[in-house]
Amino acid sequence: MSHAPISPTNRLMFRPFFAWFVLKLLALAAMATACAVLALRSGNSRWLLGAVLAIGVALLVVCHYNAQAIIIHGFTLVCRRGVLKVHENNFPLWRVDLEIEQNLLGRSMDYGTVCLHAGDEILAIYQVAAISRLRAVVTRRQTEMMTMLMGRDIVARKPSRGPRH
Fold first, then answer.
1. Cross-strand bridge partners of residue 125
2. Which of 17, 58, 65, 75 could form a disulfide with 129 if both were Cys (CB 3.0 to 4.6 A apart)?
3. pLDDT above 70 covers what percent of the chain?
């Protein structure tokens, strides 16, 4: 089976695992609904505080899902995280060493924690989806970079075939 080489201009984005995102939102919506029903049935408006708190946490979950991403653009890996204060780190792919941690559920559903080792920096991104694809893309692009560099090195070292006297 032949694989087409990945074009370095592709921009691939890896976000947190969508199923956990939806599950968190459903749990928070159920909690907010239960608190609102208890407030109506008991006549005690203090239960509305629980509903407001659950809605606030749901908004933070949505912001967190949209703010956290691993982006591969060309031969650069971009690690974006943070809700209120966004941190973005750019690493050349040749410097990146991925460490992937997965439990049994993560292996079966293809998500896990990615620890990026780049020089002295270590960054952890949790619950990244399509982790096997991320691993494959990083490995393939690193191989393409090494092939390109080796090809340039061979061309630079190749002696000219001029006439010998």
1. 114
2. 17
3. 86
